[in-house]
């Protein structure tokens, strides 16, 4: 049994919530969330998909270690996923990108299958004939982010943890008895371990705490809901091999993104009209129908470090300050694995082999983390 600690987690997105619900089994845990509800920013604006051949080897391994959680949720969680095939598609000029994707991932993901343009249009009939080939992933999932967030919140509360909303951190200091955290309301908390799960604001929290500097870049991404005028509910998610568009069924609609990554500041991100127009134009260029206007638009921030792996571990300069950041675009789908990993590190426990092998690859002091 590990020594019981008081742990404050700054940030109530999926990273903070999933870790807090794990830690609360053996510790006193408080989440501080600046907004009115958990999951307001990046988590609540996620594309809500689970894709195993994704980003890089670290993200891939964390995803593999997370899959079972979504397929067979633990007690207290409602249904978290449903099948959603995923297909990378290309016009002739980008066919080499499909080949490169399959070369990179097929050994680790043997279910991937090369498909023809005709086979793709059998599934997504609105795609133009210029789409000539693709790579089909039958193992991807659509995720229910609301149920994931609510499941962690319920489990945290059942384990006597707490979530303090409208609680923006303004000061952090290290004192003899541990950390002292001051809120904008004037309230204060003390704790043994401080977890930085503040998403796009993680750099600001680290600066307040006097922790080491990590070059974390928030980037804005645009989301668009459109009505295709046809039943799209059985379609797979579609990614263009050119890397500048994806869309997926969203009930009777389509969720579309131009896959933009605009450097931005930590804020309540809003969609830019130009990015929305670009997304609509790219969509209409690859389909046989004209969709004239969006039904709804939004934007969210996805935060990255240089190697596009997460940052998980105790800070080198301030050992009781724990980083849980840099989950740009994969924070939801890898949360079951990294929350177990982070909880094990904080509790001083032995990690399972599949997570221990990643420890140095996600550590805050890994080489080249801050290269520009």
List the keywords:
372 residues; alpha+beta; FAD/NAD(P)-binding domain; D-Amino Acid Oxidase, Chain A, domain 2; 2 domains; 9-stranded mixed beta sheet; 6-stranded mixed beta sheet; 11 helices; 21 strands; globular
Count of domain modules: 2
Q: Look at the structure and give the mean pLDDT.
A: 96
Which stretches are low in confidence, meaning pLDDT under 50 for 5 or more residues running?
none
Helix content: 25-40%
In CATH terms, the superfamily of the largest domain is FAD/NAD(P)-binding domain
Radius of gyration (Å): 21 Å
E-strand count: 21
CATH architecture of the largest domain: 3-Layer(bba) Sandwich
Total DSSP helices: 11
Content-based structural category = alpha+beta
Described by the principal axes of the CA atoms, the overall outline is globular
* Fraction of residues in β-strands: 25-35%
At the first level of CATH, the class of the largest domain is Alpha Beta
Q: Could you describe the largest sheet, including whether it forms a barrel?
A: 9 strands, mixed
CA-CA gap between termini:
42 Å
- What fold name stands as the CATH topology of the largest domain? FAD/NAD(P)-binding domain
